[in-house]
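Fold this complex.
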Amino acid sequence: MPSKAFLILRSGLKGRVSKDARRRCGSGLPRFLAMVLLIGPVAAFAAEPPPGASSCSGCHAARAAVKTPVPRLEGRPAADIVTAMQQFRTGQRPATVMDRVAKGFTEPETAAIAAWYAGQKE
Amino acid sequence: MRRTTRRAFLKRVALAGAFLPAAPALAQAAPRVVVIGGGFAGASCARALKRFGPGLTVSLVEPNDVFTACPFSNEVIAGLRDLRAQQFNYDAFPRDGIIRARQTALAIDPKARTVSLTGGSRLAYDRLVLAPGVDLRWDALPGYGETAAERMPHAWKAGPQTELLRRQLAAMEDGGLVVIAAPANPYRCPPGPYERASLIAHYLKAAKPRSKVIILDAKDAFSKQKLFQQAWEQLYPGLIEWVPLSSGGKVTAVDPAAMTVTTDFQTYKPAVANIIPPQQAGQIALAAGVADRTGWCPIDPVTFESKLQPNIHVIGDAAIAGAMPKSAFAANAQAKACAAAVAGLIAGLTPAAPKLINTCYSLAAPDYGISVAGVYQPQDGQLVEVPGSGGTSPLDAPPATRAAEAEIADGWFRTITAEAFG
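Structure:
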Protein backbone atom coordinates (compact mmCIF):
# COMPACT_ATOMS: atom_id res chain seq x y z
CA MET A 1 0.00 0.00 0.00
CA PRO A 2 1.41 3.40 -0.84
CA SER A 3 1.40 5.84 2.01
CA LYS A 4 -1.19 8.58 2.40
CA ALA A 5 1.42 11.21 1.69
CA PHE A 6 2.17 9.50 -1.56
CA LEU A 7 -1.45 9.75 -2.63
CA ILE A 8 -1.51 13.40 -1.64
CA LEU A 9 1.52 13.92 -3.84
CA ARG A 10 -0.34 12.27 -6.67
CA SER A 11 -3.42 14.44 -6.35
CA GLY A 12 -1.21 17.50 -5.87
CA LEU A 13 0.47 16.87 -9.18
CA LYS A 14 -2.90 17.00 -10.86
CA GLY A 15 -3.67 20.45 -9.45
CA ARG A 16 -3.43 22.40 -12.67
CA VAL A 17 -5.70 25.05 -14.10
CA SER A 18 -8.42 23.59 -16.30
CA LYS A 19 -9.23 24.93 -19.76
CA ASP A 20 -12.59 25.95 -18.36
CA ALA A 21 -11.00 28.09 -15.70
CA ARG A 22 -8.82 29.72 -18.31
CA ARG A 23 -11.84 30.54 -20.47
CA ARG A 24 -13.60 32.14 -17.53
CA CYS A 25 -10.61 34.38 -17.00
CA GLY A 26 -11.10 36.36 -20.20
CA SER A 27 -8.02 37.72 -21.97
CA GLY A 28 -5.05 40.03 -21.58
CA LEU A 29 -3.78 41.31 -18.27
CA PRO A 30 -7.12 40.95 -16.40
CA ARG A 31 -7.27 37.32 -17.48
CA PHE A 32 -3.73 36.78 -16.37
CA LEU A 33 -4.28 38.35 -12.94
CA ALA A 34 -7.51 36.39 -12.57
CA MET A 35 -5.52 33.27 -13.31
CA VAL A 36 -3.21 34.10 -10.47
CA LEU A 37 -6.15 34.30 -8.11
CA LEU A 38 -7.64 31.11 -9.46
CA ILE A 39 -4.48 29.05 -9.24
CA GLY A 40 -3.71 30.29 -5.75
CA PRO A 41 -5.84 28.01 -3.60
CA VAL A 42 -5.23 24.97 -5.80
CA ALA A 43 -1.49 25.39 -5.88
CA ALA A 44 -1.33 25.92 -2.13
CA PHE A 45 -1.82 22.19 -1.68
CA ALA A 46 0.32 21.07 -4.57
CA ALA A 47 3.43 19.22 -3.55
CA GLU A 48 5.17 19.94 -6.82
CA PRO A 49 5.95 23.51 -7.87
CA PRO A 50 5.07 24.63 -11.43
CA PRO A 51 7.83 24.64 -14.08
CA GLY A 52 10.61 27.06 -13.14
CA ALA A 53 9.54 27.64 -9.55
CA SER A 54 11.94 25.21 -7.94
CA SER A 55 14.93 26.98 -9.51
CA CYS A 56 14.12 30.22 -7.65
CA SER A 57 15.19 28.85 -4.27
CA GLY A 58 18.77 28.66 -5.52
CA CYS A 59 18.93 32.39 -4.68
CA HIS A 60 15.66 33.13 -2.84
CA ALA A 61 16.15 31.35 0.47
CA ALA A 62 13.26 29.21 1.68
CA ARG A 63 14.25 29.83 5.30
CA ALA A 64 14.26 33.23 6.97
CA ALA A 65 17.37 32.29 8.94
CA VAL A 66 19.60 32.48 5.84
CA LYS A 67 21.47 35.79 5.65
CA THR A 68 21.12 37.22 2.15
CA PRO A 69 20.10 40.50 0.51
CA VAL A 70 17.79 38.53 -1.82
CA PRO A 71 14.12 38.68 -0.68
CA ARG A 72 12.18 35.55 0.21
CA LEU A 73 9.25 34.56 -1.99
CA GLU A 74 7.23 32.32 0.33
CA GLY A 75 3.94 33.86 1.36
CA ARG A 76 4.43 36.95 -0.81
CA PRO A 77 1.25 38.13 -2.59
CA ALA A 78 1.17 36.65 -6.08
CA ALA A 79 0.35 40.02 -7.66
CA ASP A 80 3.54 41.51 -6.16
CA ILE A 81 5.69 38.81 -7.73
CA VAL A 82 3.89 39.14 -11.06
CA THR A 83 4.35 42.93 -11.09
CA ALA A 84 8.01 42.67 -10.13
CA MET A 85 8.66 40.15 -12.89
CA GLN A 86 6.88 42.35 -15.45
CA GLN A 87 8.96 45.33 -14.40
CA PHE A 88 12.17 43.29 -14.51
CA ARG A 89 11.26 42.14 -18.01
CA THR A 90 10.61 45.66 -19.29
CA GLY A 91 13.54 47.21 -17.46
CA GLN A 92 11.30 49.49 -15.35
CA ARG A 93 12.72 47.99 -12.17
CA PRO A 94 16.43 48.15 -11.41
CA ALA A 95 18.04 44.72 -11.31
CA THR A 96 21.31 42.89 -11.05
CA VAL A 97 20.34 39.51 -12.44
CA MET A 98 16.51 39.36 -12.39
CA ASP A 99 16.15 41.35 -15.63
CA ARG A 100 18.00 38.54 -17.41
CA VAL A 101 16.06 35.78 -15.64
CA ALA A 102 12.59 37.36 -16.01
CA LYS A 103 12.95 37.45 -19.80
CA GLY A 104 13.01 33.64 -19.77
CA PHE A 105 9.44 33.35 -18.46
CA THR A 106 6.07 33.99 -20.11
CA GLU A 107 3.29 35.75 -18.21
CA PRO A 108 1.30 32.54 -17.57
CA GLU A 109 4.46 30.81 -16.32
CA THR A 110 5.17 33.75 -14.04
CA ALA A 111 1.58 33.72 -12.79
CA ALA A 112 1.78 30.03 -11.89
CA ILE A 113 5.10 30.50 -10.09
CA ALA A 114 3.81 33.56 -8.23
CA ALA A 115 0.66 31.73 -7.16
CA TRP A 116 2.65 28.77 -5.95
CA TYR A 117 4.97 30.92 -3.82
CA ALA A 118 2.02 32.89 -2.48
CA GLY A 119 0.59 29.62 -1.24
CA GLN A 120 3.75 28.57 0.56
CA LYS A 121 4.12 29.17 4.28
CA GLU A 122 5.95 32.36 5.14
CA MET B 1 -13.14 9.93 -10.66
CA ARG B 2 -10.49 10.18 -7.99
CA ARG B 3 -11.38 6.68 -6.72
CA THR B 4 -10.90 5.06 -10.11
CA THR B 5 -7.59 6.75 -10.61
CA ARG B 6 -6.43 5.73 -7.20
CA ARG B 7 -7.50 2.14 -7.73
CA ALA B 8 -5.72 2.02 -11.09
CA PHE B 9 -2.66 3.44 -9.45
CA LEU B 10 -2.66 0.84 -6.67
CA LYS B 11 -3.02 -1.85 -9.29
CA ARG B 12 0.00 -0.51 -11.11
CA VAL B 13 2.08 -0.58 -7.93
CA ALA B 14 0.96 -4.15 -7.22
CA LEU B 15 1.80 -5.21 -10.76
CA ALA B 16 5.18 -3.54 -10.58
CA GLY B 17 5.91 -5.62 -7.50
CA ALA B 18 4.83 -8.83 -9.21
CA PHE B 19 7.08 -8.24 -12.19
CA LEU B 20 10.20 -7.41 -10.26
CA PRO B 21 11.20 -10.51 -8.34
CA ALA B 22 14.87 -9.47 -8.52
CA ALA B 23 14.14 -6.64 -6.10
CA PRO B 24 12.66 -8.39 -3.07
CA ALA B 25 12.30 -5.23 -1.00
CA LEU B 26 9.54 -4.13 -3.37
CA ALA B 27 7.12 -6.01 -1.17
CA GLN B 28 7.45 -2.97 1.12
CA ALA B 29 5.01 -0.16 0.57
CA ALA B 30 7.46 2.65 -0.09
CA PRO B 31 9.14 2.91 -3.50
CA ARG B 32 12.91 3.28 -3.14
CA VAL B 33 15.05 5.97 -4.68
CA VAL B 34 18.81 5.78 -4.24
CA VAL B 35 20.91 8.89 -4.81
CA ILE B 36 24.65 8.44 -5.34
CA GLY B 37 26.84 11.44 -4.54
CA GLY B 38 26.43 14.06 -1.81
CA GLY B 39 27.48 17.21 -3.65
CA PHE B 40 25.23 20.09 -4.71
CA ALA B 41 23.29 17.86 -7.13
CA GLY B 42 22.92 14.72 -5.01
CA ALA B 43 22.31 16.39 -1.65
CA SER B 44 19.73 18.78 -3.14
CA CYS B 45 18.01 15.92 -4.96
CA ALA B 46 17.74 13.65 -1.90
CA ARG B 47 16.15 16.47 0.09
CA ALA B 48 13.80 17.47 -2.75
CA LEU B 49 12.73 13.84 -3.25
CA LYS B 50 11.66 13.73 0.37
CA ARG B 51 9.76 17.03 -0.08
CA PHE B 52 7.97 16.04 -3.29
CA GLY B 53 7.46 12.40 -2.33
CA PRO B 54 7.30 12.13 1.47
CA GLY B 55 6.28 8.47 1.07
CA LEU B 56 9.46 7.54 -0.80
CA THR B 57 12.35 5.73 0.84
CA VAL B 58 15.31 7.90 -0.09
CA SER B 59 18.91 6.79 0.46
CA LEU B 60 21.97 8.94 -0.09
CA VAL B 61 25.19 7.05 -0.87
CA GLU B 62 28.14 9.24 0.14
CA PRO B 63 31.30 7.96 1.84
CA ASN B 64 32.47 11.34 3.17
CA ASP B 65 31.10 12.93 6.33
CA VAL B 66 32.20 16.40 5.25
CA PHE B 67 31.50 18.06 1.93
CA THR B 68 33.87 20.81 0.84
CA ALA B 69 32.22 23.20 -1.61
CA CYS B 70 34.04 24.46 -4.70
CA PRO B 71 32.19 27.79 -5.17
CA PHE B 72 34.13 30.48 -3.26
CA SER B 73 37.11 28.13 -2.81
CA ASN B 74 39.10 30.55 -4.99
CA GLU B 75 38.76 32.98 -2.06
CA VAL B 76 40.47 30.38 0.14
CA ILE B 77 43.32 30.18 -2.38
CA ALA B 78 43.68 33.96 -2.25
CA GLY B 79 43.76 33.96 1.56
CA LEU B 80 40.41 35.74 1.86
CA ARG B 81 38.44 32.90 3.42
CA ASP B 82 38.94 29.90 5.67
CA LEU B 83 38.42 26.46 4.15
CA ARG B 84 36.08 25.67 7.03
CA ALA B 85 33.60 28.19 5.57
CA GLN B 86 33.40 25.81 2.60
CA GLN B 87 32.55 22.73 4.64
CA PHE B 88 29.17 21.16 5.29
CA ASN B 89 27.98 17.90 6.81
CA TYR B 90 25.03 15.58 6.41
CA ASP B 91 23.73 15.73 9.99
CA ALA B 92 20.35 17.07 8.83
CA PHE B 93 19.71 14.17 6.48
CA PRO B 94 18.61 11.45 8.94
CA ARG B 95 16.50 14.10 10.68
CA ASP B 96 14.74 14.76 7.38
CA GLY B 97 14.07 11.07 6.86
CA ILE B 98 16.89 10.37 4.40
CA ILE B 99 18.87 7.16 4.91
CA ARG B 100 22.60 7.72 4.72
CA ALA B 101 24.82 5.00 3.30
CA ARG B 102 28.35 6.03 4.29
CA GLN B 103 29.93 3.86 1.65
CA THR B 104 31.27 4.14 -1.87
CA ALA B 105 29.14 2.85 -4.73
CA LEU B 106 31.30 0.37 -6.64
CA ALA B 107 28.99 -1.05 -9.28
CA ILE B 108 25.45 -0.84 -10.57
CA ASP B 109 23.36 -3.63 -12.04
CA PRO B 110 20.73 -1.82 -14.15
CA LYS B 111 18.77 -5.05 -14.79
CA ALA B 112 18.54 -6.16 -11.17
CA ARG B 113 18.32 -2.49 -10.09
CA THR B 114 20.92 -2.81 -7.38
CA VAL B 115 23.92 -0.77 -6.27
CA SER B 116 26.96 -2.62 -4.86
CA LEU B 117 28.65 -0.80 -2.02
CA THR B 118 32.03 -1.12 -0.32
CA GLY B 119 31.85 -3.80 2.35
CA GLY B 120 29.84 -6.10 0.10
CA SER B 121 26.33 -4.81 0.82
CA ARG B 122 23.76 -3.96 -1.84
CA LEU B 123 21.03 -1.39 -2.14
CA ALA B 124 17.97 -2.10 -4.29
CA TYR B 125 16.24 0.75 -6.06
CA ASP B 126 13.16 1.49 -8.12
CA ARG B 127 14.87 4.57 -9.49
CA LEU B 128 18.48 5.62 -9.16
CA VAL B 129 19.84 9.16 -9.30
CA LEU B 130 23.53 9.49 -10.14
CA ALA B 131 25.24 12.70 -9.08
CA PRO B 132 28.90 11.69 -9.13
CA GLY B 133 30.33 15.03 -10.22
CA VAL B 134 33.57 14.97 -12.18
CA ASP B 135 36.68 12.84 -12.15
CA LEU B 136 39.95 14.39 -13.21
CA ARG B 137 41.39 12.59 -16.21
CA TRP B 138 44.83 11.65 -15.02
CA ASP B 139 45.69 10.15 -18.42
CA ALA B 140 44.94 13.29 -20.43
CA LEU B 141 48.07 15.37 -19.95
CA PRO B 142 51.59 13.85 -20.30
CA GLY B 143 53.52 14.20 -17.05
CA TYR B 144 50.43 14.98 -14.95
CA GLY B 145 48.85 12.56 -12.49
CA GLU B 146 47.89 12.13 -8.86
CA THR B 147 51.53 12.34 -7.69
CA ALA B 148 52.25 15.35 -9.91
CA ALA B 149 49.21 17.10 -8.39
CA GLU B 150 51.05 17.20 -5.06
CA ARG B 151 53.64 19.46 -6.70
CA MET B 152 51.36 21.13 -9.25
CA PRO B 153 47.94 21.26 -7.60
CA HIS B 154 44.74 21.23 -9.62
CA ALA B 155 42.66 22.54 -6.69
CA TRP B 156 39.63 21.66 -8.83
CA LYS B 157 38.11 19.57 -6.06
CA ALA B 158 37.98 21.70 -2.96
CA GLY B 159 39.80 20.41 0.11
CA PRO B 160 43.49 19.61 0.70
CA GLN B 161 44.32 20.66 -2.87
CA THR B 162 42.82 24.11 -2.23
CA GLU B 163 45.00 24.58 0.84
CA LEU B 164 48.07 23.24 -0.96
CA LEU B 165 47.74 25.88 -3.68
CA ARG B 166 47.16 28.52 -0.99
CA ARG B 167 50.34 27.47 0.85
CA GLN B 168 52.39 27.50 -2.35
CA LEU B 169 51.25 31.04 -3.17
CA ALA B 170 51.95 32.18 0.39
CA ALA B 171 55.47 30.68 0.23
CA MET B 172 56.26 32.12 -3.21
CA GLU B 173 58.79 34.95 -3.37
CA ASP B 174 57.82 38.33 -4.77
CA GLY B 175 58.43 38.33 -8.52
CA GLY B 176 57.38 34.71 -8.96
CA LEU B 177 55.44 33.42 -11.94
CA VAL B 178 52.09 31.69 -11.38
CA VAL B 179 50.84 29.55 -14.26
CA ILE B 180 47.21 28.44 -14.47
CA ALA B 181 46.49 25.77 -17.10
CA ALA B 182 42.83 25.93 -18.17
CA PRO B 183 41.26 22.96 -19.97
CA ALA B 184 39.12 22.80 -23.12
CA ASN B 185 35.33 22.65 -22.74
CA PRO B 186 33.41 21.03 -21.17
CA TYR B 187 34.63 21.08 -17.58
CA ARG B 188 33.36 21.94 -14.10
CA CYS B 189 32.79 25.67 -13.50
CA PRO B 190 33.55 27.37 -16.85
CA PRO B 191 34.50 30.80 -15.34
CA GLY B 192 36.45 29.19 -12.46
CA PRO B 193 39.99 29.47 -13.86
CA TYR B 194 39.49 33.18 -14.61
CA GLU B 195 38.00 33.98 -11.21
CA ARG B 196 40.98 32.15 -9.74
CA ALA B 197 43.43 34.23 -11.80
CA SER B 198 41.63 37.38 -10.63
CA LEU B 199 41.71 36.54 -6.94
CA ILE B 200 45.31 35.31 -7.04
CA ALA B 201 46.17 38.65 -8.71
CA HIS B 202 44.26 40.40 -5.93
CA TYR B 203 46.51 38.66 -3.40
CA LEU B 204 49.71 39.24 -5.36
CA LYS B 205 48.98 42.93 -6.01
CA ALA B 206 48.97 43.57 -2.27
CA ALA B 207 51.52 41.02 -1.05
CA LYS B 208 53.88 40.32 -3.97
CA PRO B 209 53.40 43.08 -6.56
CA ARG B 210 56.31 42.12 -8.83
CA SER B 211 54.73 38.71 -9.51
CA LYS B 212 52.70 37.68 -12.54
CA VAL B 213 49.87 35.29 -13.47
CA ILE B 214 49.82 33.59 -16.88
CA ILE B 215 46.74 31.64 -17.95
CA LEU B 216 47.63 28.99 -20.52
CA ASP B 217 44.34 28.15 -22.17
CA ALA B 218 43.24 25.22 -24.35
CA LYS B 219 40.49 27.40 -25.85
CA ASP B 220 40.06 30.73 -27.63
CA ALA B 221 37.14 32.11 -25.64
CA PHE B 222 35.86 31.77 -22.10
CA SER B 223 32.89 32.50 -19.87
CA LYS B 224 32.32 36.19 -18.98
CA GLN B 225 35.46 36.94 -20.99
CA LYS B 226 34.86 40.65 -21.68
CA LEU B 227 33.88 41.25 -18.06
CA PHE B 228 36.96 39.51 -16.71
CA GLN B 229 39.27 41.27 -19.16
CA GLN B 230 37.76 44.64 -18.26
CA ALA B 231 38.18 43.87 -14.56
CA TRP B 232 41.81 42.85 -15.08
CA GLU B 233 42.54 46.15 -16.86
CA GLN B 234 40.84 48.12 -14.10
CA LEU B 235 42.15 46.22 -11.09
CA TYR B 236 45.36 44.43 -12.05
CA PRO B 237 46.94 46.15 -15.07
CA GLY B 238 49.85 44.09 -16.41
CA LEU B 239 49.49 41.43 -13.75
CA ILE B 240 47.44 38.83 -15.66
CA GLU B 241 48.31 37.52 -19.11
CA TRP B 242 45.91 35.25 -20.98
CA VAL B 243 47.39 33.01 -23.69
CA PRO B 244 44.58 31.54 -25.83
CA LEU B 245 44.74 28.31 -27.83
CA SER B 246 45.46 30.15 -31.08
CA SER B 247 48.53 31.82 -29.50
CA GLY B 248 49.88 28.47 -28.33
CA GLY B 249 48.12 28.41 -24.98
CA LYS B 250 47.35 24.70 -24.85
CA VAL B 251 49.52 22.87 -22.33
CA THR B 252 50.85 19.68 -23.93
CA ALA B 253 53.06 18.36 -21.12
CA VAL B 254 54.21 19.10 -17.59
CA ASP B 255 57.28 18.00 -15.63
CA PRO B 256 56.66 18.29 -11.90
CA ALA B 257 60.29 17.43 -10.99
CA ALA B 258 61.71 20.20 -13.20
CA MET B 259 58.66 22.43 -12.51
CA THR B 260 58.11 23.08 -16.20
CA VAL B 261 54.89 23.56 -18.13
CA THR B 262 55.14 23.06 -21.88
CA THR B 263 52.93 24.32 -24.71
CA ASP B 264 53.39 23.89 -28.45
CA PHE B 265 55.37 27.13 -28.56
CA GLN B 266 57.18 27.50 -25.27
CA THR B 267 58.28 25.99 -21.97
CA TYR B 268 57.42 27.95 -18.83
CA LYS B 269 59.18 27.60 -15.49
CA PRO B 270 56.67 28.87 -12.93
CA ALA B 271 57.13 29.18 -9.19
CA VAL B 272 53.57 27.94 -8.74
CA ALA B 273 51.77 25.78 -11.30
CA ASN B 274 48.02 25.26 -11.05
CA ILE B 275 47.16 22.56 -13.58
CA ILE B 276 43.44 22.08 -14.18
CA PRO B 277 43.27 18.86 -16.20
CA PRO B 278 40.49 17.68 -18.53
CA GLN B 279 37.59 15.97 -16.77
CA GLN B 280 34.85 13.39 -17.26
CA ALA B 281 31.82 12.09 -15.38
CA GLY B 282 32.60 10.44 -12.03
CA GLN B 283 33.69 6.80 -12.23
CA ILE B 284 30.41 5.27 -11.08
CA ALA B 285 28.65 6.79 -14.12
CA LEU B 286 31.09 5.00 -16.40
CA ALA B 287 30.67 1.77 -14.41
CA ALA B 288 26.87 2.07 -14.72
CA GLY B 289 27.11 2.42 -18.48
CA VAL B 290 25.43 5.82 -18.56
CA ALA B 291 28.42 7.74 -20.01
CA ASP B 292 28.95 7.90 -23.76
CA ARG B 293 32.26 8.11 -25.66
CA THR B 294 32.73 11.72 -24.56
CA GLY B 295 32.96 10.58 -20.93
CA TRP B 296 29.76 12.48 -20.03
CA CYS B 297 26.17 11.28 -19.63
CA PRO B 298 23.40 11.93 -22.18
CA ILE B 299 20.03 12.48 -20.51
CA ASP B 300 16.40 13.14 -21.29
CA PRO B 301 15.90 16.89 -20.67
CA VAL B 302 12.50 16.44 -19.00
CA THR B 303 13.24 13.65 -16.53
CA PHE B 304 17.07 13.57 -16.50
CA GLU B 305 16.76 9.83 -17.14
CA SER B 306 19.80 8.39 -18.88
CA LYS B 307 19.47 7.89 -22.62
CA LEU B 308 21.57 4.75 -22.21
CA GLN B 309 20.07 2.95 -19.18
CA PRO B 310 16.45 2.96 -17.96
CA ASN B 311 15.55 3.96 -14.38
CA ILE B 312 18.87 5.73 -13.89
CA HIS B 313 18.82 9.53 -13.79
CA VAL B 314 21.96 11.67 -14.04
CA ILE B 315 22.20 15.23 -12.72
CA GLY B 316 24.87 17.84 -12.09
CA ASP B 317 28.33 18.08 -13.59
CA ALA B 318 28.30 14.49 -14.93
CA ALA B 319 25.26 15.09 -17.16
CA ILE B 320 25.22 16.45 -20.70
CA ALA B 321 22.68 19.15 -19.94
CA GLY B 322 22.75 20.91 -23.31
CA ALA B 323 23.29 24.63 -22.91
CA MET B 324 23.43 24.48 -19.10
CA PRO B 325 26.92 24.91 -17.67
CA LYS B 326 28.46 22.63 -15.06
CA SER B 327 27.79 24.84 -12.05
CA ALA B 328 26.52 24.35 -8.50
CA PHE B 329 23.44 26.44 -9.28
CA ALA B 330 22.64 24.31 -12.34
CA ALA B 331 23.25 21.11 -10.33
CA ASN B 332 20.83 22.29 -7.62
CA ALA B 333 18.19 23.35 -10.18
CA GLN B 334 18.48 20.05 -12.06
CA ALA B 335 18.30 18.14 -8.77
CA LYS B 336 14.93 19.66 -7.90
CA ALA B 337 13.48 19.18 -11.40
CA CYS B 338 14.75 15.58 -11.44
CA ALA B 339 13.30 14.90 -7.97
CA ALA B 340 9.88 16.13 -9.13
CA ALA B 341 10.10 13.98 -12.27
CA VAL B 342 11.20 10.89 -10.33
CA ALA B 343 8.41 11.32 -7.76
CA GLY B 344 5.94 11.79 -10.60
CA LEU B 345 7.18 8.80 -12.61
CA ILE B 346 6.92 6.56 -9.55
CA ALA B 347 3.35 7.80 -9.07
CA GLY B 348 2.63 6.80 -12.67
CA LEU B 349 2.42 10.35 -14.00
CA THR B 350 3.93 11.96 -17.07
CA PRO B 351 6.29 14.68 -15.84
CA ALA B 352 5.76 18.19 -17.16
CA ALA B 353 8.61 19.83 -19.09
CA PRO B 354 10.75 21.71 -16.56
CA LYS B 355 12.10 25.19 -16.80
CA LEU B 356 15.52 25.65 -15.26
CA ILE B 357 17.57 28.64 -14.23
CA ASN B 358 21.30 29.00 -13.87
CA THR B 359 23.04 31.91 -12.23
CA CYS B 360 26.76 31.91 -11.84
CA TYR B 361 28.66 34.56 -9.91
CA SER B 362 32.39 35.19 -10.13
CA LEU B 363 34.51 37.55 -8.10
CA ALA B 364 37.16 39.62 -9.84
CA ALA B 365 37.91 41.05 -6.37
CA PRO B 366 36.15 40.58 -3.01
CA ASP B 367 33.88 43.57 -3.76
CA TYR B 368 33.70 43.08 -7.52
CA GLY B 369 31.09 40.52 -8.58
CA ILE B 370 30.04 39.62 -12.12
CA SER B 371 27.47 37.08 -13.23
CA VAL B 372 26.06 35.07 -16.07
CA ALA B 373 22.47 33.88 -15.99
CA GLY B 374 20.33 31.71 -18.21
CA VAL B 375 16.86 30.15 -18.41
CA TYR B 376 16.58 26.74 -20.04
CA GLN B 377 13.86 24.42 -21.34
CA PRO B 378 13.70 21.12 -23.23
CA GLN B 379 13.59 21.33 -27.01
CA ASP B 380 14.30 18.51 -29.47
CA GLY B 381 15.73 16.31 -26.75
CA GLN B 382 18.13 18.94 -25.42
CA LEU B 383 18.09 21.66 -22.80
CA VAL B 384 18.29 24.90 -24.74
CA GLU B 385 18.43 28.51 -23.59
CA VAL B 386 15.10 30.35 -23.80
CA PRO B 387 15.57 32.90 -26.62
CA GLY B 388 15.96 36.47 -25.36
CA SER B 389 16.73 35.43 -21.79
CA GLY B 390 19.95 35.33 -19.84
CA GLY B 391 23.30 36.96 -20.46
CA THR B 392 26.08 38.50 -18.44
CA SER B 393 26.34 41.54 -16.18
CA PRO B 394 26.69 44.77 -18.17
CA LEU B 395 30.13 45.96 -19.22
CA ASP B 396 31.21 49.38 -17.90
CA ALA B 397 28.94 49.10 -14.85
CA PRO B 398 29.71 51.37 -11.89
CA PRO B 399 31.54 49.97 -8.83
CA ALA B 400 28.25 49.96 -6.87
CA THR B 401 26.81 47.39 -9.31
CA ARG B 402 29.89 45.17 -8.96
CA ALA B 403 29.74 45.50 -5.17
CA ALA B 404 26.03 44.60 -5.16
CA GLU B 405 26.69 41.49 -7.21
CA ALA B 406 29.51 40.47 -4.86
CA GLU B 407 27.13 40.80 -1.93
CA ILE B 408 24.44 38.79 -3.72
CA ALA B 409 27.03 36.13 -4.56
CA ASP B 410 27.75 35.79 -0.86
CA GLY B 411 24.03 35.46 -0.10
CA TRP B 412 23.66 32.94 -2.91
CA PHE B 413 26.32 30.70 -1.36
CA ARG B 414 24.59 30.75 2.02
CA THR B 415 21.20 30.11 0.39
CA ILE B 416 22.20 27.22 -1.84
CA THR B 417 24.27 25.45 0.81
CA ALA B 418 21.39 25.79 3.28
CA GLU B 419 19.04 24.24 0.76
CA ALA B 420 21.41 21.43 -0.22
CA PHE B 421 22.72 20.49 3.23
CA GLY B 422 19.99 21.70 5.59
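Chain B has two domains: 2-135+280-350, 149-278.
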